[in-house]
Amino acid sequence: MTALVGIIMGSKSDWPTMKHAADMLDLLEVPYEVNVVSAHRTPDLLFEYAKSAQSRGLKVIIGGAGGAAHLPGMCASQTVLPVLGVPVKSRALNGIDSLLSIAQMPGGVAVGTLAIGDAGAKNSGLLAAQILATSDAELTQRILQFQQNQTNTILSQPDPRVED
Ligand SMILES: Nc1c(C(=O)O)ncn1[C@@H]1O[C@H](COP(=O)(O)O)[C@@H](O)[C@H]1O
After folding, report:
1. How many helical (H) and strand (E) elements, i.e. helices and strands, does the chain have?
2. Which residues does the UniProt record annotate as the domain PurE (predicted)?
3. For a designed S-S bond to 120, which of 23, 74, 97, 114 qualifies (C-beta 3.0 to 4.6 A apart)?
4. Among candidates 49, 48, 63, which has minimal Cα distance to 18?
5. Average pLDDT in the 141-152 region?
6. Predicted ipTM?
7. Per the annotation, where are the binding residues?
8. In whole angstroms, what is the distance from residue 102 CA to residue 53 CA?
């Protein structure tokens, strides 16, 4: 099936984090592709990726990067597709650098910034699916089911004061 979401990351080392975005898209049965592309290390490839994304059928791009995380912003500068940015937790600054690099975009170039790390990656997959669901009734139903399952899991948990 043609990919609707493009997951890109600055390095293969980002995959353990970005896998959570892919897992969510798998759960919601959204077709996606995964590529390592870097604004710093492969700038020509990034521009080609971003410029061709819409014509290749992608609807949303998720960009994960750590440190000086310019990837989502530079991608957003070259496409009309919505770009979601995931700040990957960096070794030196725990991802605060990644978060600020992604969130503090100049006006006129938009990136939707998620939380640092695994939860942000998971939510990027969910948010990408929710964007697609605005024009997909079956996907809307799968997201509703996901939300219901999540609620049921919480409600079925025992009293937190009781020891296992
Ligand atoms: N932030 C960026 C960009 C970019 O923004 O284009 N390209 C690579 N990186 C980041 O460098 C970190 C270390 O990469 P290595 O583990 O390959 O040294 C990764 O988190 C990657 O996202």
Report:
1. 6, 5
2. 3-154
3. 114
4. 63
5. 98
6. 0.99
7. 11, 14, 41
8. 20
